[in-house]
Write a structure and sequence with these properties.
The complex is a heterodimer of chains A (93) and B (165). Chain A has a single domain, classed as Roll (SH3 type barrels), CATH 2.30.30. Helices cover 14% and strands 37% of the residues of chain A. A five-stranded antiparallel sheet of chain A has the order 1-5-2-3-4, with no helix packed on it. The radius of gyration of chain A is 13 Å and the shape is globular. Chain B is built from six helices and two strands, in the order H-H-H-H-H-H-E-E. Chain B has a single domain, classed as Four Helix Bundle (Hemerythrin (Met), subunit A), CATH 1.20.120.400. The longest helix of chain B has 32 residues. The chains are: A mainly beta (93), B mainly alpha (165). Chains A and B meet through strand 3 of A and helix 1 of B.
Chain lengths: 93, 165
């Protein structure tokens, strides 16, 4: 999820009603294939759930591979992420 | 400050983890490095066996012997490293679903690679190449690339699985 999130970052999630989810939101979901993952919402459908993509498009698992994520599989919306690790990572580069 | 506090809390009572499946964008994976290293192990074993047939070893033979042993171990370790990189970085859930025996195969490569370091055995070196070829075939299959087997055009002239590109 670089450049927004880096390995080791802390994120805070909150239960979020499907009706309030919008394209562009960061969410944590429980994918059957990939386990617990954090991705960005690109499409919301009340019946089917959400379509996701990674910000690091070159390396992220594709939207097609993840498929529709059902509403039940959404753990929560990311409402805060720690910026400190971003600074650390910037220094490391 | 907040991050330090969170890190401290995390050490005492670990938070749940979420993965992003984002790595350094490289995507350059090819089992040929492991295959070439496995061929090298066979070649070094052959050269060591040639050396062992001599009745008396000269000073330079001793130096050559030492070098061949060292290179055999380096290349056996390289086979293990290259295989681990593909297994650890490239293979993900969809590939493991396609080839559920991959873990067992990779573990066998690790064990056989170590056996090649411990012994001067052509049989073990050939077994290592066979396993790496099997790994290469499944790697290319996960990419939808057909493979063929051909004898490599250089010593030790063993069968190698190549991609049909």
């Amino acid at each position: 999820m670089q450049p927004v999130l880096f390995a080791g970052d802390f994120i805070l999630t909150c239960k979020w009603p499907m009706a309030w989810l919008k394209s562009g939101h960061l969410v944590v979901v429980h994918s059957e294939k990939y386990g617990v993952i954090v991705k960005r919402v690109i499409e919301v459908c009340r019946q089917r759930g959400v379509l996701l993509r990674g910000d690091n498009a070159y390396e992220s698992v594709s939207t097609k591979a993840m498929g529709w994520i059902s509403p039940n599989a959404i753990v929560g919306k990311v409402i805060y992420s720690s910026p400190a690790n971003h600074l650390l990572n910037d220094k490391r580069r | 400050m907040l991050n330090t506090l969170l890190s401290s809390l995390h050490r005492r009572a670990p938070f749940a983890k979420a993965s992003a499946h984002c790595d350094i964008p490289c995507k350059i994976y090819d089992p040929i490095s492991a295959q070439l290293a496995a061929l090298s192990v066979i070649r070094f074993v052959d050269l060591l066996n040639e050396l062992s047939e001599k009745e008396n070893l000269s000073f330079s033979d001793h130096a050559q012997f030492s070098r061949l042993i060292s290179e055999k171990e380096i290349h056996a370790e390289k086979v293990k490293h290259e295989t681990r990189v593909i297994w650890g970085d490239y293979f993900k859930a969809p590939q493991f679903e396609q080839y559920p025996d991959t873990h067992k195969l990779v573990h066998n490569i690790m064990l056989t690679g170590s056996a090649c370091k411990q012994h001067v055995s052509r049989e073990k070196a050939e077994a290592l190449l066979r396993l790496v070829n099997e790994f290469a075939a499944s790697f290319w299959a996960t990419k939808g690339v057909e493979t063929y087997t051909a004898t490599c055009p250089y010593p030790p002239a063993e069968n190698v699985v190549y991609p049909k590109l």
